[in-house]
Amino acid sequence: SLMVADGNVDAASKALDPVLSRDATDIDALTTRGELRLVQKQPAEAMRDFRAVIAKSGDIAPPHYDLAVAYVQSANAAQARPALDSALKSANSELQTSIKLAPNYPEAVLQLAALRTQAGVPNDAISDIEHFINDNPRSIRARTILGSALMGAGRIPEADEAFHDVLRLSPGNAEAHYWIGMLLNR
Q1: CA dist., res. 29 & res. 153, Å (int)
Q2: Is the CA virtual torsion 44, 49, 50, 51 positive or negative?
Q3: In contact, 144 and 176? CB cutoff 8 Å
Q4: For 48, 60, 125, 160, which has the most beta carbons within 10 A of its beta carbon?
Q5: pTM: predicted TM-score of the whole model, two decimal places
Q6: Residue 16 — very low, low, confident or very high, per pLDDT cuts 50/70/90?
């Protein structure tokens, strides 16, 4: 996993080969290979790995989140609207499963809120992200996503407040400055 995080794709792949040749169902190796395949922009192959992890490990949140990330990557590469819609629907479903299994799983909560905002249903995202912020008041990413969702819902004063909250926590946050500029421009 560290080699994948460092971007050393070849070394990670070479390290995985002997492990998977000994045990093709090794959960850690499958997870790492799936992450490696995401780095390589191979979402279909990554999905196979994450599904194998889910089948072997039972219901734990991280592989459902990883599978959702693969679906989002697949959606981003989709050429046709039906493929895009299907991938986003599957990503949404996997994120919801992940959150059911681990209600405060930050990556899943934030990714689902971002997905809902991008899908044009920001009101669904707002409530979830506000609950998350109540439990994680210093989360800059959550407040940024909240600001975007509020903006998408047309709640401009509240969006402005959310982005200013980001700046109170992180005065140099470029994204918050950008969004406040966009709000002022409106």
Answers
A1: 42
A2: positive
A3: yes
A4: 125
A5: 0.81
A6: confident
